[in-house]
């Protein structure tokens, strides 16, 4: 019976580990490519047209063929006119605080607002995490808006990039 040399055992284990690492690297690189592909098609405001919040009674769903990249995000619009209005003055139509919940910001923490729970206040779009947060915000909107503006950059809900 031959006793394997230590170097042979080490080589086989090393080769097996290298194969596992190689397969893992291929998997990780393909997963990151898939994540990048998925991220590319993530629309802001759940694909609602940001201009429609200001000009319609309810927000309208944007189209995939009428989009614009601004502020590190992809925005969808219902028509070319809305896209052009947004392109000319995006700060007017984009939600304040990058879409973070305005009440949560006023209280000092970050929470993502939802596109369907919103308020156009003083001609600016605000998003909220819940209907309760929206109702509470309306109890003292000017005070809470000022607090939210003071705390927005601390929790990375500041201006669009």
TrEMBL record:
Extent of the signal sequence: 1-35
Protein name: YHS domain-containing protein
Keyword set, alphabetical order: Signal
Species the sequence originates in: Pseudovibrio japonicus
């Amino acid at each position: 019976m031959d006793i394997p040399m230590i170097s042979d055992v080490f080589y086989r284990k090393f080769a097996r580990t290298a194969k596992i690492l190689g397969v893992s690297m291929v998997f990780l690189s393909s997963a990151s490519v898939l994540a990048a592909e998925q991220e590319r098609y993530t629309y802001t405001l759940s694909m609602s047209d940001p201009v429609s919040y200001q000009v319609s009674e309810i927000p309208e769903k944007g189209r995939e063929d009428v989009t614009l990249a601004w502020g590190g995000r992809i925005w969808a619009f219902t028509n070319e006119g809305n896209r052009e209005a947004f392109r000319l003055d995006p700060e007017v139509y984009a939600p304040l605080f990058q879409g973070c919940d305005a009440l949560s910001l006023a209280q000092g923490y970050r929470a993502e607002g939802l596109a369907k729970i919103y308020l156009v206040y003083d001609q600016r779009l605000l998003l909220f995490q819940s209907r309760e947060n929206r109702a509470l915000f309306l109890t003292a909107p000017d005070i809470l808006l000022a607090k939210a503006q003071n705390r927005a950059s601390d929790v990375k809900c500041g201006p669009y990039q």
